[in-house]
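Pipeline run #58 for the internal structure catalog. This entry was flagged by the ingest filter as a single-chain record with no existing model, so it goes straight to prediction. Upstream metadata was stripped on purpose; only the residue string is passed forward. Reviewer on rotation: M.T. Logging verbosity set to normal.
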Amino acid sequence: MNTLMPARAHSLVSATLDTPTHGVIELSHDWRARAVPLLVLTGGMRLRELERYSTGRFALRSGYHFLKDGIIEFVFNPADHPEVDLERETIHVAGDFNEWRGADTVAWALRSHEVCGQPVMVWSGPAAAVLKGDGAPVRFKFVTGKHLWLSVPLGTPNAVRDEAGNYNRVVDPERTGLHLFSFQLAAPADLARTLSVGWAQRQQSESVPLHAGGFFYALKTDLPLGVEARASGTRFRVFAPRASKVELSLCAALAEQGKAHRYALVRREDEEGASGVWELTLEGNLHGWFYWYQIEGPKDAFGVFDPARRVLDPYALAVVNREGPGIILERARLGGVNDGFKTPAWHDLVIAEAHVRDLAQRAPVVADEVERRGFTGLKKWVESEDFYLSRLGVNCVELQPLQEFDNQTREEYHWGYMTVNWFAPASAYAMRPEAATGVRELQELVRAFHARGIAVIVDVVYNHVGEPAHLMFLDRLYYFEQDAAGNLSNWSGCGNDYRASSAMAQRLIIDSCIHWMKIFGVDGFRFDLADLIGRPVLEQVEAALKKVKPDVILIAEPWSFRGHIAGELRDTGWSSWNDGYRNFMRDFVRGAARPETFEYYLKGSPWYYAKWPAQTVNYTESHDDRTWLDVITENGDGDGHLPTVNDRRRTHLMAAVLFSSIGIPMLSAGQDFLRSKHGVNNTYLRGDLNALDYQRIHRFPSTHAYFADWIAFRRSETGRLLRHFSRATEGFFEFRRGEGAAVAVIYNADLSQGPERLLFAINPGLGDAVISLSDWADKDWQQLADTERFLPPGRPAGTQRVTPHLFVPALGCGLWRTQ
């Protein structure tokens, strides 16, 4: 390829170790000289060999390379997208050069090939058909023949973000693989030292830090981590692969922190599988003592090692507050819940999302202010005969984060999505955190929920950490995503992204989840921003957790600011929050959704989003953003605190559709009594707005009862027609469209699930409508519910018969049964 290169000096971009003795150096643009550049390694180590990098290996990472005679080859690596079935799907390339319409024609389809001995898909053609005349970079992306865009893998060297926030790759005519060089070291790199690569013959001191690559993130140990306290002694063990020194500080009382005993841990090098492990054993059982670590390591762009910084053990079982110290607990004394509770089948779940303090703050029970701030106050409410969620009829509660988070004081209200330790229960919810009472109090709370027949799911945040970011001081490079310059990735929007793909980062997730199942008896987890965890790690988590608890509930929030992976999870055992369902319902009740969209979501978002029925969690409100009512209210200021008549009727329509949809229904606590946050969008620090106002149950008793009756019906024997373990037969549903947006659906139309059938009709429009049911009207239909109520047995006043032309009033619905 003949491309005129600008007359500018080369600069160093990055230097990465692929193995302890081999790596890659990246320059700013192609090196056209015959001789390799003169580079040196500082830090007491020597470069032994420097040679050009294979353009084929470059193509596997970047997605393209240039062949001879002006030919460009796009290279799709199937290993980057295991979710794509290449026997059923075609892969195409699309970009600026074909107006992003590559999926529309076979001309841009890829063919099978090999690059560097690896099976790939390629497209080859004249570079002139792809490049711009001015030599500017050209964007591209791979897409299936069914128009499914394939995300750019994390760490792709030529990834760029556009103005809409989408990530694409670019073809850069000045970076064709000739800007890369591989090197060999004379001896394995010492990761505890500060190493860098620079020019050998330039006056300027330009250099880049040498950082560890893929092999480093695979470093792991199978040894038990954390503190093991026994009569024979107390062992401390921590994984810190780049540390040069790890020191333990220990004291028997908080008042003695200034005079803590200090001990140096020893790095284990005595056996395979202990790489990066530091440990120490002291005499006696130190149960109840307080401890922290101080760690030294290399001073470079990828580390924030600070020997003066107190670092909380990531495996600490209890903490005093977000800063620590950790509290040593003898595991034998922790016990567990062990109450014999049986987790409901996923398709039988009805979930309520809630926050500990929101539930307890205004609960009508005798409790003081300290109790209402945490586990003890909520336990009193759960044990009350009037407990709200029990009266509502849900059989599962999804509690917002319970792991230690970064509120600055115990009194400060916080949603909890900035966690700093994943083993310890939140100190802010404990009566006496310095005595680790939160462990026992949380166990008692879970027992109380189980006694009510309510499973407990915990919202966990493994995609980023809060302040202080203790893992940063343990090893920033190992535990956090960053670019070649050491800049932290921030797809979470919270300042950092956890590198869940690192072996011990993945293990930390798994170990903490298993701890919460065994010690606290929780029934499952909802993973916040699971897109940042990624499908491979989620699959490993699923496999490990199901070995401990086969019926564990696993729910993903399948998006982040980076992307959305619900489709990728369809072949896993994970369910996903369905944001499409949420957005659809907001439109539907206002008459702005298409009938076919209603059919898709009522049937459980089949196949792309949910391969099996319970793989979709259908919801219309969560803790994030405005409440359902504040979104759909007719009030001009977006404040639904005083709802209109239509606000209330639309909420009833939403409930009817939610509980008659296939999948797992989820409510946000308070939705059933028309909860409003006065139109405020983000209330993560607003305990005053979030605390549940139970008096609204009595202000809107019929709405609360309507939700409760729908839940009871869904969980009933007849309600089994709405609760599917596996996909229904093709003829199970039969839809009829009426005037405007009105629609009716018959469940079990083909009698594949017994003799009973259900008929549900709804009209979200502002005008009355008629739906033709001529061939179904002769059945002996019994009305069960309308827009306002579930009907008592018999034929009470207002009962509606099913006629050939079924009348459905404006903002109205009805439910009937026949057998």
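catalog note: Residues 337 and 521 are 5 Å apart (CA to CA).
catalog note: The first helix runs from residue 55 to 62.
status: ready for reviewer M.T.
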